[in-house]
Amino acid sequence: MKKEISNVLNLIENGDTVKALQNAKLFYKKNKNDLDAIKLLAYTYIQLGNFERVIDVLEDGYKKRKDLKDFDYFNNMGYALSQIEEYDKSISYLEKASELNNNPNVKISLAEVFLKKRDFQNAKLAISKALEDIKKIGEDSFTNYVNVFLLISEINGALGKDNETINLFNNLLKNRFNENIFFLLSNIDPRLVDEKIAKIAESSLLTNENKYENKIERFNFVTPLYFGLAAYYQSRDKEKSEEYFDNGNKEIFISSRYNSHQYQERILKTMELYLKKYKSFEEGERHHGRENFFIVGSPRSGTTLLESVITANNKVFSGGELKSGKDIIEKNILSKDQSLSDLNHRFLSKYIRRTSYLRGEYEYIVDKMPENFLYIGLIQKLLPKSKIIRIFRNPWDTAISLYKQRYVLNVPYSVSFFNIGVFLANFEAINLFWDDHIEEKKNIFDIKYEDLVSNYLFNQEKIYEFLEIKAEYDERKRDEFFSPTASTRQVKEVIHQRSIKKNEFLHHKSEFIDAIFMQREYWSKKGISSKKIDFFGYKLD
Q1: What confidence score (pLDDT) does residue 284 get?
Q2: Are strands 364-367 and 444-448 parallel, antiparallel or unpaired?
Q3: Distance CA 120, CA 104 (A)
Q4: H helices, E strands: number in the chain
Q5: Which residues fall within 8 angstroms of residue 202, CB to CB, at 6 or more apart?
Q6: How far apart are CA 422 and CA 420, in angstroms?
Q7: Mean pLDDT value across residues 117-128
Q8: Cα–chain center distance at 322
Protein backbone atom coordinates (compact mmCIF):
# COMPACT_ATOMS: atom_id res chain seq x y z
CA MET A 1 0.00 0.00 0.00
CA LYS A 2 2.82 2.44 0.90
CA LYS A 3 4.48 1.66 -2.43
CA GLU A 4 1.31 2.52 -4.40
CA ILE A 5 0.85 5.81 -2.52
CA SER A 6 4.52 6.69 -3.00
CA ASN A 7 4.23 5.98 -6.71
CA VAL A 8 1.31 8.41 -7.13
CA LEU A 9 3.08 11.12 -5.14
CA ASN A 10 6.25 10.69 -7.22
CA LEU A 11 4.27 11.04 -10.44
CA ILE A 12 2.72 14.27 -9.12
CA GLU A 13 6.14 15.58 -8.11
CA ASN A 14 7.45 14.90 -11.62
CA GLY A 15 4.50 16.66 -13.23
CA ASP A 16 2.75 13.57 -14.64
CA THR A 17 -0.61 14.30 -13.04
CA VAL A 18 -2.65 12.43 -15.66
CA LYS A 19 -0.91 9.14 -14.90
CA ALA A 20 -1.02 9.96 -11.19
CA LEU A 21 -4.82 10.25 -11.40
CA GLN A 22 -5.11 6.93 -13.21
CA ASN A 23 -3.08 5.19 -10.49
CA ALA A 24 -4.92 7.00 -7.68
CA LYS A 25 -8.27 5.88 -9.13
CA LEU A 26 -7.08 2.26 -9.34
CA PHE A 27 -5.83 2.40 -5.76
CA TYR A 28 -9.13 3.92 -4.62
CA LYS A 29 -11.15 1.28 -6.49
CA LYS A 30 -9.30 -1.50 -4.64
CA ASN A 31 -9.44 0.25 -1.25
CA LYS A 32 -12.67 2.30 -1.19
CA ASN A 33 -13.02 2.05 2.57
CA ASP A 34 -9.45 3.10 3.28
CA LEU A 35 -8.97 6.74 4.32
CA ASP A 36 -5.51 6.89 2.72
CA ALA A 37 -7.04 5.93 -0.64
CA ILE A 38 -9.71 8.63 -0.25
CA LYS A 39 -7.15 11.27 0.71
CA LEU A 40 -4.81 10.30 -2.13
CA LEU A 41 -7.54 10.56 -4.76
CA ALA A 42 -8.70 13.92 -3.40
CA TYR A 43 -5.13 15.23 -3.30
CA THR A 44 -4.57 14.14 -6.92
CA TYR A 45 -7.71 15.97 -8.03
CA ILE A 46 -6.37 19.07 -6.27
CA GLN A 47 -3.22 18.89 -8.42
CA LEU A 48 -5.42 18.73 -11.54
CA GLY A 49 -7.53 21.66 -10.40
CA ASN A 50 -10.77 19.64 -10.35
CA PHE A 51 -12.05 21.00 -7.05
CA GLU A 52 -15.66 19.89 -7.45
CA ARG A 53 -14.39 16.30 -7.58
CA VAL A 54 -12.20 16.90 -4.51
CA ILE A 55 -15.30 17.89 -2.56
CA ASP A 56 -17.33 14.94 -3.90
CA VAL A 57 -14.60 12.40 -3.03
CA LEU A 58 -14.13 13.74 0.51
CA GLU A 59 -17.84 14.12 1.29
CA ASP A 60 -18.60 10.62 0.00
CA GLY A 61 -15.56 9.05 1.68
CA TYR A 62 -16.21 10.56 5.11
CA LYS A 63 -20.00 10.32 4.97
CA LYS A 64 -20.07 7.25 7.25
CA ARG A 65 -16.95 8.28 9.16
CA LYS A 66 -17.88 11.65 10.62
CA ASP A 67 -15.97 10.83 13.79
CA LEU A 68 -12.78 10.31 11.72
CA LYS A 69 -12.75 13.75 10.11
CA ASP A 70 -9.16 14.89 10.53
CA PHE A 71 -6.79 17.69 9.53
CA ASP A 72 -6.44 16.47 5.94
CA TYR A 73 -10.21 16.40 5.51
CA PHE A 74 -10.81 19.94 6.81
CA ASN A 75 -7.73 21.41 5.11
CA ASN A 76 -8.44 19.93 1.67
CA MET A 77 -12.16 20.70 1.88
CA GLY A 78 -11.40 24.28 2.89
CA TYR A 79 -8.91 24.74 0.09
CA ALA A 80 -11.19 23.16 -2.55
CA LEU A 81 -14.14 25.30 -1.44
CA SER A 82 -12.01 28.43 -1.69
CA GLN A 83 -11.10 27.55 -5.27
CA ILE A 84 -14.77 27.33 -6.33
CA GLU A 85 -15.41 30.62 -4.49
CA GLU A 86 -17.52 29.19 -1.66
CA TYR A 87 -15.69 31.49 0.73
CA ASP A 88 -18.04 31.34 3.71
CA LYS A 89 -17.84 27.53 3.87
CA SER A 90 -14.13 27.59 3.12
CA ILE A 91 -13.29 29.77 6.12
CA SER A 92 -15.23 27.44 8.43
CA TYR A 93 -13.32 24.34 7.26
CA LEU A 94 -9.93 26.05 7.29
CA GLU A 95 -10.43 27.35 10.82
CA LYS A 96 -11.22 23.80 11.98
CA ALA A 97 -8.08 22.55 10.23
CA SER A 98 -6.04 25.25 11.97
CA GLU A 99 -7.30 24.07 15.36
CA LEU A 100 -6.05 20.54 14.61
CA ASN A 101 -2.64 21.32 13.14
CA ASN A 102 -0.29 24.30 13.15
CA ASN A 103 0.39 23.95 9.41
CA PRO A 104 1.36 27.09 7.45
CA ASN A 105 -0.62 25.93 4.40
CA VAL A 106 -3.89 26.45 6.27
CA LYS A 107 -2.98 30.03 7.11
CA ILE A 108 -1.91 30.61 3.51
CA SER A 109 -5.30 29.42 2.28
CA LEU A 110 -7.06 31.63 4.83
CA ALA A 111 -4.98 34.62 3.71
CA GLU A 112 -6.02 33.97 0.09
CA VAL A 113 -9.71 33.85 1.04
CA PHE A 114 -9.55 37.02 3.13
CA LEU A 115 -7.69 38.77 0.29
CA LYS A 116 -10.44 37.80 -2.15
CA LYS A 117 -13.04 39.13 0.30
CA ARG A 118 -10.95 42.31 0.50
CA ASP A 119 -10.57 41.80 4.24
CA PHE A 120 -6.95 42.93 4.10
CA GLN A 121 -6.32 43.11 7.85
CA ASN A 122 -7.28 39.49 8.45
CA ALA A 123 -5.33 38.50 5.33
CA LYS A 124 -2.27 40.25 6.78
CA LEU A 125 -2.70 38.52 10.13
CA ALA A 126 -3.02 35.07 8.51
CA ILE A 127 -0.02 35.46 6.19
CA SER A 128 2.16 36.87 9.01
CA LYS A 129 1.41 33.78 11.10
CA ALA A 130 2.20 31.55 8.11
CA LEU A 131 5.56 33.28 7.65
CA GLU A 132 6.40 32.78 11.34
CA ASP A 133 5.59 29.08 11.05
CA ILE A 134 7.81 28.76 7.97
CA LYS A 135 10.70 30.50 9.74
CA LYS A 136 10.47 27.91 12.50
CA ILE A 137 10.83 25.14 9.93
CA GLY A 138 13.99 26.78 8.60
CA GLU A 139 15.14 29.05 5.78
CA ASP A 140 15.63 26.06 3.49
CA SER A 141 11.84 25.70 3.39
CA PHE A 142 11.32 29.13 1.78
CA THR A 143 11.55 27.65 -1.72
CA ASN A 144 8.58 25.39 -0.96
CA TYR A 145 6.40 28.35 0.02
CA VAL A 146 6.78 30.76 -2.89
CA ASN A 147 3.07 31.62 -2.72
CA VAL A 148 3.62 33.06 0.79
CA PHE A 149 5.87 35.77 -0.58
CA LEU A 150 3.53 36.48 -3.47
CA LEU A 151 0.68 36.89 -0.97
CA ILE A 152 2.80 39.11 1.27
CA SER A 153 3.49 41.30 -1.74
CA GLU A 154 -0.20 41.46 -2.72
CA ILE A 155 -1.53 42.06 0.78
CA ASN A 156 1.01 44.78 1.58
CA GLY A 157 0.27 46.32 -1.81
CA ALA A 158 -3.43 46.41 -0.95
CA LEU A 159 -2.61 48.07 2.39
CA GLY A 160 -0.27 50.60 0.76
CA LYS A 161 2.76 49.00 2.44
CA ASP A 162 4.99 48.14 -0.53
CA ASN A 163 7.98 49.49 1.41
CA GLU A 164 7.44 46.79 4.03
CA THR A 165 7.59 44.13 1.31
CA ILE A 166 10.65 45.68 -0.31
CA ASN A 167 12.53 45.80 3.00
CA LEU A 168 11.59 42.19 3.82
CA PHE A 169 12.64 40.90 0.39
CA ASN A 170 15.91 42.84 0.38
CA ASN A 171 16.83 41.52 3.83
CA LEU A 172 16.00 37.95 2.81
CA LEU A 173 18.08 38.26 -0.37
CA LYS A 174 21.05 39.70 1.51
CA ASN A 175 21.02 36.78 3.95
CA ARG A 176 20.39 34.12 1.34
CA PHE A 177 19.63 34.57 -2.36
CA ASN A 178 16.30 33.13 -3.49
CA GLU A 179 15.26 33.08 -7.15
CA ASN A 180 11.54 33.63 -6.61
CA ILE A 181 11.95 36.40 -4.08
CA PHE A 182 14.27 38.15 -6.55
CA PHE A 183 11.60 37.80 -9.24
CA LEU A 184 8.87 39.22 -6.97
CA LEU A 185 11.05 42.15 -5.88
CA SER A 186 11.96 43.03 -9.46
CA ASN A 187 8.26 43.09 -10.36
CA ILE A 188 7.32 45.43 -7.51
CA ASP A 189 9.82 48.02 -8.67
CA PRO A 190 12.93 46.95 -10.65
CA ARG A 191 14.54 50.31 -9.92
CA LEU A 192 14.87 49.30 -6.27
CA VAL A 193 16.80 46.11 -6.99
CA ASP A 194 20.40 46.51 -5.83
CA GLU A 195 23.01 46.06 -8.58
CA LYS A 196 24.87 43.52 -6.43
CA ILE A 197 21.72 41.40 -6.12
CA ALA A 198 21.19 41.60 -9.90
CA LYS A 199 24.76 40.33 -10.43
CA ILE A 200 24.10 37.43 -8.03
CA ALA A 201 20.94 36.67 -10.05
CA GLU A 202 22.92 36.56 -13.31
CA SER A 203 25.54 34.32 -11.74
CA SER A 204 22.85 32.04 -10.32
CA LEU A 205 21.21 31.83 -13.73
CA LEU A 206 24.40 30.50 -15.28
CA THR A 207 24.68 27.89 -12.52
CA ASN A 208 21.02 26.89 -12.50
CA GLU A 209 20.82 26.58 -16.29
CA ASN A 210 23.25 23.65 -16.10
CA LYS A 211 22.24 22.32 -12.70
CA TYR A 212 18.50 21.73 -13.16
CA GLU A 213 16.88 19.54 -15.82
CA ASN A 214 13.50 18.63 -14.31
CA LYS A 215 10.83 21.04 -15.65
CA ILE A 216 9.43 21.74 -12.18
CA GLU A 217 12.89 22.55 -10.86
CA ARG A 218 13.57 24.76 -13.87
CA PHE A 219 10.31 26.58 -13.27
CA ASN A 220 11.37 27.28 -9.67
CA PHE A 221 15.06 28.06 -10.22
CA VAL A 222 15.50 29.20 -13.85
CA THR A 223 12.40 31.01 -15.17
CA PRO A 224 12.08 33.46 -12.23
CA LEU A 225 15.64 34.60 -12.92
CA TYR A 226 14.96 35.20 -16.61
CA PHE A 227 11.82 37.23 -15.93
CA GLY A 228 13.30 39.00 -12.90
CA LEU A 229 16.39 40.07 -14.85
CA ALA A 230 14.22 41.06 -17.82
CA ALA A 231 12.27 43.42 -15.55
CA TYR A 232 15.48 44.72 -13.94
CA TYR A 233 17.02 45.64 -17.32
CA GLN A 234 13.89 47.18 -18.90
CA SER A 235 14.93 50.73 -18.07
CA ARG A 236 18.67 49.97 -18.16
CA ASP A 237 19.33 47.91 -21.28
CA LYS A 238 16.37 47.32 -23.63
CA GLU A 239 18.16 44.77 -25.81
CA LYS A 240 19.30 42.72 -22.82
CA SER A 241 15.83 42.91 -21.29
CA GLU A 242 14.18 41.59 -24.46
CA GLU A 243 16.71 38.76 -24.65
CA TYR A 244 15.86 37.69 -21.10
CA PHE A 245 12.13 37.84 -21.86
CA ASP A 246 12.68 35.71 -24.97
CA ASN A 247 14.67 33.10 -23.04
CA GLY A 248 12.20 33.01 -20.16
CA ASN A 249 9.24 32.47 -22.48
CA LYS A 250 11.12 29.79 -24.44
CA GLU A 251 11.77 28.03 -21.14
CA ILE A 252 8.05 27.89 -20.35
CA PHE A 253 7.09 27.08 -23.95
CA ILE A 254 9.26 23.93 -23.94
CA SER A 255 7.47 22.48 -20.92
CA SER A 256 3.95 23.78 -21.65
CA ARG A 257 1.14 21.74 -23.20
CA TYR A 258 -0.94 24.57 -24.65
CA ASN A 259 -2.97 23.44 -27.65
CA SER A 260 -4.43 26.33 -29.66
CA HIS A 261 -6.53 23.87 -31.71
CA GLN A 262 -8.40 22.74 -28.57
CA TYR A 263 -9.15 26.37 -27.68
CA GLN A 264 -10.33 27.01 -31.24
CA GLU A 265 -12.60 23.94 -31.12
CA ARG A 266 -14.05 25.09 -27.81
CA ILE A 267 -15.00 28.43 -29.36
CA LEU A 268 -16.51 26.70 -32.40
CA LYS A 269 -18.53 24.35 -30.20
CA THR A 270 -19.79 27.29 -28.13
CA MET A 271 -20.97 29.03 -31.30
CA GLU A 272 -22.68 25.91 -32.67
CA LEU A 273 -24.48 25.10 -29.41
CA TYR A 274 -25.60 28.70 -28.96
CA LEU A 275 -27.21 28.74 -32.41
CA LYS A 276 -28.80 25.29 -32.06
CA LYS A 277 -30.03 25.43 -28.49
CA TYR A 278 -29.73 28.76 -26.76
CA LYS A 279 -30.27 31.68 -29.13
CA SER A 280 -34.06 31.26 -29.24
CA PHE A 281 -34.34 30.56 -25.51
CA GLU A 282 -36.76 32.90 -23.81
CA GLU A 283 -35.24 34.26 -20.62
CA GLY A 284 -37.10 33.34 -17.47
CA GLU A 285 -36.64 35.69 -14.54
CA ARG A 286 -36.08 39.07 -16.21
CA HIS A 287 -34.83 40.70 -13.00
CA HIS A 288 -31.78 38.45 -12.56
CA GLY A 289 -28.42 40.17 -12.89
CA ARG A 290 -29.52 43.63 -11.77
CA GLU A 291 -26.61 43.71 -9.29
CA ASN A 292 -24.01 42.17 -11.66
CA PHE A 293 -21.53 43.98 -13.89
CA PHE A 294 -19.08 42.18 -16.21
CA ILE A 295 -15.84 43.48 -17.71
CA VAL A 296 -14.59 41.39 -20.61
CA GLY A 297 -11.66 41.63 -23.00
CA SER A 298 -8.32 40.14 -23.78
CA PRO A 299 -5.98 39.79 -20.79
CA ARG A 300 -3.76 42.92 -20.54
CA SER A 301 -6.27 45.05 -22.44
CA GLY A 302 -7.13 47.36 -19.55
CA THR A 303 -9.71 45.31 -17.66
CA THR A 304 -8.10 46.06 -14.28
CA LEU A 305 -7.92 49.81 -14.98
CA LEU A 306 -11.58 49.75 -15.96
CA GLU A 307 -12.47 47.87 -12.77
CA SER A 308 -10.66 50.51 -10.70
CA VAL A 309 -12.82 53.21 -12.30
CA ILE A 310 -16.12 51.33 -11.87
CA THR A 311 -15.44 50.58 -8.17
CA ALA A 312 -14.22 54.07 -7.22
CA ASN A 313 -17.38 54.77 -5.23
CA ASN A 314 -19.40 53.36 -2.34
CA LYS A 315 -21.86 51.34 -4.46
CA VAL A 316 -19.79 48.76 -6.39
CA PHE A 317 -17.77 45.89 -4.89
CA SER A 318 -14.67 44.72 -6.71
CA GLY A 319 -15.08 40.98 -7.26
CA GLY A 320 -11.94 40.73 -9.37
CA GLU A 321 -11.49 37.78 -11.70
CA LEU A 322 -14.21 35.41 -10.53
CA LYS A 323 -13.92 31.87 -11.86
CA SER A 324 -17.43 30.73 -10.96
CA GLY A 325 -19.38 32.10 -13.91
CA LYS A 326 -16.96 30.83 -16.53
CA ASP A 327 -16.55 27.43 -14.85
CA ILE A 328 -20.30 26.81 -14.44
CA ILE A 329 -21.01 27.74 -18.06
CA GLU A 330 -18.16 25.63 -19.42
CA LYS A 331 -19.20 22.53 -17.51
CA ASN A 332 -22.70 22.83 -18.91
CA ILE A 333 -22.64 24.48 -22.33
CA LEU A 334 -20.05 22.04 -23.66
CA SER A 335 -22.37 19.14 -22.80
CA LYS A 336 -24.67 18.26 -25.69
CA ASP A 337 -27.22 16.82 -23.27
CA GLN A 338 -27.53 19.98 -21.22
CA SER A 339 -30.48 22.34 -21.67
CA LEU A 340 -30.34 26.05 -20.97
CA SER A 341 -33.06 25.66 -18.34
CA ASP A 342 -30.73 23.27 -16.45
CA LEU A 343 -27.81 25.65 -16.91
CA ASN A 344 -30.02 28.54 -15.82
CA HIS A 345 -30.91 26.75 -12.57
CA ARG A 346 -27.29 25.77 -11.81
CA PHE A 347 -25.95 29.21 -12.67
CA LEU A 348 -28.46 31.10 -10.57
CA SER A 349 -28.18 28.77 -7.58
CA LYS A 350 -24.39 29.03 -7.49
CA TYR A 351 -23.16 32.21 -9.19
CA ILE A 352 -25.80 34.54 -7.76
CA ARG A 353 -25.35 33.12 -4.24
CA ARG A 354 -21.55 33.39 -4.39
CA THR A 355 -21.50 36.93 -5.79
CA SER A 356 -24.20 38.04 -3.33
CA TYR A 357 -22.02 36.81 -0.45
CA LEU A 358 -19.05 38.80 -1.74
CA ARG A 359 -21.15 41.88 -2.53
CA GLY A 360 -22.38 42.11 1.05
CA GLU A 361 -23.93 45.54 1.65
CA TYR A 362 -22.81 46.98 -1.69
CA GLU A 363 -25.46 47.47 -4.38
CA TYR A 364 -23.41 45.95 -7.21
CA ILE A 365 -20.50 43.63 -7.83
CA VAL A 366 -18.18 43.65 -10.83
CA ASP A 367 -16.73 40.42 -12.26
CA LYS A 368 -13.71 41.19 -14.43
CA MET A 369 -12.79 37.70 -15.59
CA PRO A 370 -11.49 38.70 -19.06
CA GLU A 371 -12.32 35.35 -20.69
CA ASN A 372 -16.03 35.77 -20.08
CA PHE A 373 -15.96 37.32 -23.57
CA LEU A 374 -16.44 33.73 -24.75
CA TYR A 375 -19.91 33.62 -23.19
CA ILE A 376 -21.39 37.10 -23.64
CA GLY A 377 -24.54 35.75 -25.34
CA LEU A 378 -25.11 33.18 -22.61
CA ILE A 379 -24.52 35.69 -19.82
CA GLN A 380 -27.24 37.82 -21.39
CA LYS A 381 -29.64 34.86 -21.38
CA LEU A 382 -28.80 33.85 -17.81
CA LEU A 383 -28.68 37.35 -16.31
CA PRO A 384 -30.88 39.56 -18.51
CA LYS A 385 -30.46 42.63 -16.30
CA SER A 386 -26.66 42.39 -16.02
CA LYS A 387 -24.44 44.90 -17.81
CA ILE A 388 -21.35 44.04 -19.82
CA ILE A 389 -18.47 46.29 -20.81
CA ARG A 390 -16.11 45.10 -23.54
CA ILE A 391 -12.71 46.75 -23.64
CA PHE A 392 -10.44 46.64 -26.68
CA ARG A 393 -6.78 47.58 -27.00
CA ASN A 394 -4.25 47.88 -29.82
CA PRO A 395 -3.35 44.22 -30.56
CA TRP A 396 0.42 44.79 -30.73
CA ASP A 397 0.45 46.67 -27.41
CA THR A 398 -1.64 43.86 -25.91
CA ALA A 399 0.73 41.22 -27.27
CA ILE A 400 3.82 42.91 -25.82
CA SER A 401 2.15 43.31 -22.44
CA LEU A 402 1.15 39.62 -22.41
CA TYR A 403 4.62 38.46 -23.43
CA LYS A 404 6.27 40.35 -20.56
CA GLN A 405 4.28 38.54 -17.86
CA ARG A 406 5.31 35.19 -16.41
CA TYR A 407 1.98 33.49 -16.99
CA VAL A 408 1.94 29.70 -16.93
CA LEU A 409 -1.49 28.15 -16.40
CA ASN A 410 -4.06 30.92 -16.74
CA VAL A 411 -2.67 32.51 -19.94
CA PRO A 412 -0.61 29.71 -21.54
CA TYR A 413 -0.48 31.30 -25.01
CA SER A 414 1.49 34.32 -23.75
CA VAL A 415 4.87 32.59 -24.20
CA SER A 416 5.05 33.15 -27.98
CA PHE A 417 3.96 35.97 -30.26
CA PHE A 418 2.64 33.40 -32.73
CA ASN A 419 0.31 31.91 -30.11
CA ILE A 420 -0.76 35.38 -28.96
CA GLY A 421 -1.62 36.25 -32.57
CA VAL A 422 -3.72 33.07 -32.91
CA PHE A 423 -5.47 33.85 -29.62
CA LEU A 424 -6.32 37.42 -30.66
CA ALA A 425 -7.76 36.17 -33.97
CA ASN A 426 -9.92 33.76 -31.95
CA PHE A 427 -10.88 36.62 -29.62
CA GLU A 428 -11.88 38.65 -32.67
CA ALA A 429 -13.94 35.78 -34.12
CA ILE A 430 -16.09 35.12 -31.05
CA ASN A 431 -16.74 38.84 -30.57
CA LEU A 432 -17.77 39.20 -34.23
CA PHE A 433 -20.05 36.21 -33.69
CA TRP A 434 -21.75 37.87 -30.72
CA ASP A 435 -22.09 41.11 -32.70
CA ASP A 436 -23.93 39.20 -35.44
CA HIS A 437 -26.17 37.08 -33.22
CA ILE A 438 -27.05 39.21 -30.19
CA GLU A 439 -30.18 41.13 -31.06
CA GLU A 440 -30.44 43.19 -27.88
CA LYS A 441 -27.28 45.18 -27.21
CA LYS A 442 -28.64 47.74 -24.76
CA ASN A 443 -26.72 46.12 -21.91
CA ILE A 444 -23.37 45.99 -23.77
CA PHE A 445 -20.97 48.95 -23.83
CA ASP A 446 -17.75 49.02 -25.86
CA ILE A 447 -14.72 51.14 -25.04
CA LYS A 448 -11.14 51.34 -26.24
CA TYR A 449 -8.27 51.41 -23.77
CA GLU A 450 -6.69 54.33 -25.64
CA ASP A 451 -9.88 56.39 -25.35
CA LEU A 452 -10.16 55.62 -21.65
CA VAL A 453 -6.66 56.84 -20.80
CA SER A 454 -6.63 59.83 -23.18
CA ASN A 455 -10.04 61.25 -22.24
CA TYR A 456 -10.41 59.76 -18.81
CA LEU A 457 -12.98 61.91 -17.00
CA PHE A 458 -15.32 62.09 -19.99
CA ASN A 459 -15.34 58.31 -20.34
CA GLN A 460 -15.70 57.76 -16.59
CA GLU A 461 -18.96 59.70 -16.75
CA LYS A 462 -20.15 57.71 -19.78
CA ILE A 463 -19.38 54.43 -18.01
CA TYR A 464 -21.26 55.46 -14.86
CA GLU A 465 -24.21 56.61 -16.99
CA PHE A 466 -24.32 53.24 -18.79
CA LEU A 467 -24.09 51.26 -15.52
CA GLU A 468 -26.58 53.61 -13.85
CA ILE A 469 -24.27 54.07 -10.86
CA LYS A 470 -25.83 56.78 -8.69
CA ALA A 471 -22.73 57.58 -6.68
CA GLU A 472 -19.96 60.14 -6.49
CA TYR A 473 -16.77 59.14 -8.29
CA ASP A 474 -13.87 59.08 -5.80
CA GLU A 475 -10.43 59.47 -7.39
CA ARG A 476 -8.75 58.78 -4.04
CA LYS A 477 -10.47 55.41 -3.88
CA ARG A 478 -9.34 54.63 -7.42
CA ASP A 479 -5.76 55.49 -6.45
CA GLU A 480 -5.98 52.98 -3.58
CA PHE A 481 -7.54 50.27 -5.73
CA PHE A 482 -6.18 46.76 -5.35
CA SER A 483 -6.52 43.74 -7.60
CA PRO A 484 -4.41 40.55 -7.28
CA THR A 485 -3.33 40.64 -10.93
CA ALA A 486 -0.18 41.53 -12.81
CA SER A 487 -1.66 45.00 -13.43
CA THR A 488 -2.27 46.05 -9.84
CA ARG A 489 0.69 48.42 -9.34
CA GLN A 490 0.33 49.96 -12.81
CA VAL A 491 -3.30 50.76 -12.02
CA LYS A 492 -2.30 52.56 -8.82
CA GLU A 493 -0.32 55.06 -10.90
CA VAL A 494 -1.82 58.28 -12.20
CA ILE A 495 -3.63 57.40 -15.44
CA HIS A 496 -1.18 57.90 -18.32
CA GLN A 497 -0.68 57.14 -22.00
CA ARG A 498 2.79 55.53 -21.81
CA SER A 499 1.40 52.11 -22.71
CA ILE A 500 0.15 53.26 -26.11
CA LYS A 501 2.06 52.53 -29.35
CA LYS A 502 4.78 50.38 -27.86
CA ASN A 503 7.98 49.98 -29.82
CA GLU A 504 9.44 46.75 -28.45
CA PHE A 505 10.15 43.19 -29.66
CA LEU A 506 9.98 44.31 -33.29
CA HIS A 507 11.87 41.14 -34.33
CA HIS A 508 8.68 39.23 -33.44
CA LYS A 509 6.10 41.53 -35.05
CA SER A 510 5.83 39.86 -38.48
CA GLU A 511 5.40 36.47 -36.79
CA PHE A 512 2.57 37.95 -34.73
CA ILE A 513 0.77 39.63 -37.65
CA ASP A 514 1.11 36.53 -39.84
CA ALA A 515 -0.47 34.41 -37.07
CA ILE A 516 -3.51 36.72 -36.91
CA PHE A 517 -4.07 36.57 -40.68
CA MET A 518 -3.49 32.82 -40.79
CA GLN A 519 -6.09 32.20 -38.06
CA ARG A 520 -8.48 34.64 -39.69
CA GLU A 521 -8.50 32.37 -42.74
CA TYR A 522 -9.74 29.51 -40.58
CA TRP A 523 -12.63 31.59 -39.22
CA SER A 524 -13.41 32.96 -42.68
CA LYS A 525 -14.04 29.40 -43.87
CA LYS A 526 -16.47 29.04 -40.95
CA GLY A 527 -18.37 32.12 -42.12
CA ILE A 528 -16.86 34.55 -39.63
CA SER A 529 -14.66 37.31 -40.94
CA SER A 530 -13.94 40.92 -40.23
CA LYS A 531 -15.64 43.24 -42.71
CA LYS A 532 -12.53 45.39 -42.60
CA ILE A 533 -8.84 44.56 -42.62
CA ASP A 534 -8.39 46.21 -39.23
CA PHE A 535 -8.85 44.73 -35.74
CA PHE A 536 -11.80 46.51 -34.08
CA GLY A 537 -10.59 49.78 -35.57
CA TYR A 538 -6.86 49.16 -35.05
CA LYS A 539 -4.55 48.88 -38.04
CA LEU A 540 -2.61 45.64 -38.39
CA ASP A 541 0.81 46.57 -39.75
Answers
A1: 53
A2: unpaired
A3: 18
A4: 28, 5
A5: 225, 229
A6: 5
A7: 95
A8: 9
